[in-house]
Specification:
4-stranded antiparallel sheet, 18 strands, alpha+beta, disordered N terminus, 5-stranded antiparallel sheet
Length: 508
């Protein structure tokens, strides 16, 4: 009896109460909504005095970031918190996010990487200065009057607006949601794929039109259309879903290289994209597409999606590097025909004098785009065998494609760890009690901002600056690309808020 009495106070101290968790969530959210948001939206990280701020690249005070983990991710967290607590404050916060996204929705129905609430002239000036001089950030070197599927920004924003609409069937969200649905439907090629950007803008590099697997463009669009069918019962999306799934079959290469490339021309020829993405087979995309094919079998019970997986896994196994590069056991890019690994390099010091090129050497590969990949082929084989053992009839009975009536969306969308391209995101292993203690008086979690960038200071020199920039995230002082530093400053991180809130919600 005495032992129990001695342990109870220690146990109480180690397990925060529900009230403490709720108070911490509310204080942290109040800061984000009332003190940090710009017209309801957010970038990825801020200095405490707000003198500098960053999304994937340095932003101006009038910008918010759509690309995850950005504004739409924050909206998802707010809705998750609303479901966990019933507190209308979180729904109100989600409404502000929705307002920001609707205000910045491109007239085509999609979104760019960011929204700038300043004038069009100010946005163009940013592209001509900060964006143009970010050596490795080629998508920001060109202004384009269209929207992008890259990096899941449009997909996540669309899913969030769908959640907002179905939450209370508030009609004010339906026009923007309908525009987003139309954007996905209108931009789809007849063969089933989607371009990286749409509508076509002749001022942007031609790879914007290529059918794209990179960053799960096709998979995310199929996922969004499935959500539309599940929740709204919109039969228009059924044929686009089927064509989107079949895309994976028609783009797979034949023997002896049954893999996939990152992009394809509209006549289904593999193609390169950014200058550090050569025209080659891509092993991470191949592994990802194998997983998608298994998911499509789960959705449909159609064995055609499983038919070529064994030969693909055999091919991947044949590519295993004798000597892993940076601890990774497969080459990222594989040459057509020869099956030889190819590796991308760069020379120079900034966007003015620098260039990317590829060869067969694994020495001094890029730091910002890995030349090698970690792929767990045995795990893929195990998953394939497990999926193959499920009878098609069993899958058809559960399929959201063939079931009757609408289905609810998941109650919770964010489980943390949504790092995207945010160099300040990372593993956080603090306990719940520590999360509560570490929230500061202002209401934010002090976070080491390992990512920074050189401020724009004009065009770089034509001659390379002395130094070795082959493997760094950033070039010389004129390169505005973000990079990690060994002298981080403490600041405000949106991804830290997202991850910590997800953990607190789970603790409830």
């Amino acid at each position: 009896m005495s032992l129990v009495l001695q342990l109870e106070p220690a146990f109480a101290a180690a397990a925060p109460s529900r009230a403490q968790i709720l108070e911490t969530m509310r204080r942290a959210t109040h800061f984000m909504v009332e003190d940090l948001a710009t017209n309801g939206g957010y970038v990825w990280s801020y200095l405490p005095d707000r003198s500098r701020r960053w999304g994937e690249i340095e932003a101006t005070p009038t910008m918010i970031w759509v690309q995850p983990p950005g504004t739409a991710t924050m909206g998802h967290v707010y809705l998750d918190a609303y479901h966990a607590t019933g507190d209308e404050y979180y729904y109100s916060a989600a409404e502000q996010v929705a307002g920001a996204l609707m205000a910045g929705q491109h007239r085509s129905g999609g979104w760019n990487y960011f929204i700038d609430f300043a004038s069009p002239a100010a946005t163009r000036h940013w592209y001509e200065t900060v964006g143009k001089n970010a050596w490795r950030m080629e998508e920001f070197q060109h202004y384009s009057d269209n929207a992008t599927f890259d990096d899941m920004g449009t997909s996540e924003a669309s899913q969030f607006l769908l959640r907002m609409y179905v939450e209370k069937r508030d009609a004010k969200y339906r026009p923007a949601l309908d525009k987003a649905i139309s954007f996905v439907l209108d931009s789809q090629y007849p063969i089933g794929g989607w371009p990286q950007r749409w509508p076509y803008d002749p001022s942007y590099p031609d790879y914007q039109r290529y059918i794209t697997f990179n960053d799960d463009v096709a998979a995310e669009n199929v996922r969004f259309l499935l959500m539309i069918f599940q929740t709204l019962g919109d039969a228009r999306v059924l044929d686009p879903i089927v064509r989107g799934m079949n895309l994976y079959l028609v783009t797979q290469m034949g023997q002896p290289q049954p893999g996939w490339a990152l992009q394809y021309t509209t006549d289904l020829r593999p193609a390169g994209a950014r200058t550090y993405e050569p025209n080659a087979l891509h092993t991470p995309t191949t592994a990802s597409n194998v997983r998608q094919l298994m998911e499509f079998y789960r959705l449909t019970g159609e064995t055609k999606f499983l038919a070529r997986i064994p030969e693909t896994l055999d091919w991947l196994d044949s590519l295993r590097l004798a000597e892993p590069v940076k601890g990774r056991n497969f080459p990222t890019f594989v040459e057509f025909g020869s099956n030889r690994p190819i590796f991308v390099h760069r020379r120079g010091s900034n966007v003015v004098n620098g260039e990317y090129y590829w060869d067969y050497s694994s020495e001094a590969t890029l730091g910002h785009y890995s030349g090698s990949a970690s792929i767990n082929v045995p795990a893929l084989r195990e998953e394939y065998e497990a999926v193959r053992a499920i009878p098609p009839a069993e899958l058809l009975a559960k399929s959201p494609l063939y079931g009757s009536g609408t289905q609810a969306l998941p109650r919770y969308f964010v489980s943390g760890g949504r790092s995207g391209s945010d160099l300040n995101a990372g593993e956080r292993d603090a306990g719940i009690a520590q999360l509560i203690r570490s929230l500061n008086r202002e209401g934010w979690w002090p976070t080491e901002l390992r990512a920074t960038s050189n401020p724009y200071q004009g065009e770089g020199p034509a001659e390379p600056t002395p130094g070795d920039y082959r493997t760094t995230h950033v070039g010389d002082a004129f390169d505005t690309s973000p990079y990690t530093t060994d002298q981080p400053v403490t600041g405000i991180s949106t991804s830290a808020y997202i991850d910590n809130m997800a953990r607190l919600i789970a603790a409830l």
